[in-house]
Protein: L-lysine 6-monooxygenase (NADPH-requiring)-domain-containing protein
Amino acid sequence: MSWRPYTNMKQEIGLNAIAASDLHGESAPSTTDVSTSTSTSSVSDSCSSASSPTDLTSPEPELSDAAPYDLIVVGFGPASLSIAIAILDTLSPESRRSQRILFLEKKSEFSWHGGMLLPHARMQISFIKDFATMRDPTSKFTFMNYLHTKGRLLDFVNLGTFYPLREEYEDYMRWCADLVQQDAECVVYGETVVGLSVPEQEYFTAEKIPHLAVTSVCTYDPAQKAIRLARNVVLCPGARPQFPSCFPAELTRRIFHSAEFMYKSSELLALASQSSAAEYAVAVVGAGQSAAEIAQYLHANLPLDSHVDMIFPAGALRPSDDSPFVNEIFNPEAVDGIYSLSDDRRRAMFDEYKSTNYSVVRSDLLETLYAIAYEQKLPGRTTRLGIKNLQIVEDVCVIDKQGAEKVILKLRDQYNSGHIETAEYDFVIAATGYDKSAIFTDLLSGLSRYVPASEVTVDRGYRVKLDENIEARLWVQGCNEATHGLSDTLLSIMAVRGKEIVDQIFDK
Structure:
């Protein structure tokens, strides 16, 4: 396969300095200077070469190729990976050789929820809902083929489960990402896309604007910037960890989001083991799967004189509903019906089905936590896992206590607003979800003249309605839950949805 944009790219800033290599060949051509460039800054191999994401010393080549891309995909997480796999599975080698395609990822390598890869944590969807099986079970990108390639297929069958370890599924995703890069060399790691815009020269010279400008910076050196043109753009930048407004704007190392848990748990546990305090305390704010997994992990790994509290406003931890009839809401064909509903009916449907995904915990983990809570009541036991239900966190502040940082939570009773208490913790972990729209709003701000961020309209095929003078096309992924249903941000339909978008882009 030779769907290869380049393996080594550097670019001048400027709308006419759009460096790109030839998808027809094995490597990038030599480049010459573009006189219309407006700056001398460049993107080095640290931003553009998947093989050397940290090298900032390579010499800067001249430029010659300023041709637009047929497709630029922003981000290379699961949603983007499903698109890349659909391209490889759907387009013939001849078609791929005629296309200029690029994926831009801010991280230095592929990863998926690395901060929540807790030991023994399992997936919550069937492995059959992988990146290919629901679309094409014969694809080499199936989870079954991954297991076969790794020599674990029969062993996995013997487990008798549809739910692999989360750690294993992330390795499957990495395996897919590596296969895509081996086949196509189409992914550039270490570049953060900061905005989309309409190229000025096209706005003033073209009756119809055929391209969007995609501006990115080197993740490790934001002073280095690149601007590329594309006929088609897909935004899959992911979601941003979300903190309640009561949390301080400036976080300390004692307060962090669940998305960072496995990156920061070693420090937390080390400080707990070194603490001379009579009791080391950690609060987990939230009532969903992540909060429950973290609470269980901390209970098992903190010293015996420590304790962890789960704090949430609901009356009880609730089970997730993964029953078969309810699960049909995640079928790919369900999106058609959901999209056709009125806004009010969609909101009602969301409320009806939110117990599948929001502030809920798998039943087996609930039973484990309840057993822990019960055993604490036996003679001679101490309470190391606290379930502080009906508590609203009103304020979070950090104080210095005898040379050590402490986090003070102000808690108000959900049903008795006059009952307020304060609690002191050594660490506070916010398992409080993600903002799915903030990054999209930021990226689309440069197109406000053509698509106001507050009035973004997305059709059934995930395409954004742009000004009629713009021929370039834009799709968005991961921010369409309100119009396309609960499956929009989940893995359930990615195999099918990826092909839907590929078919639109390449007019299949």
The longest strand covers residues 391-401. The CA atoms of residues 476 and 506 lie 16 Å apart. The mean pLDDT is 87. The domain at 241-319+358-434 is CATH 3.50.50.60 (FAD/NAD(P)-binding domain).
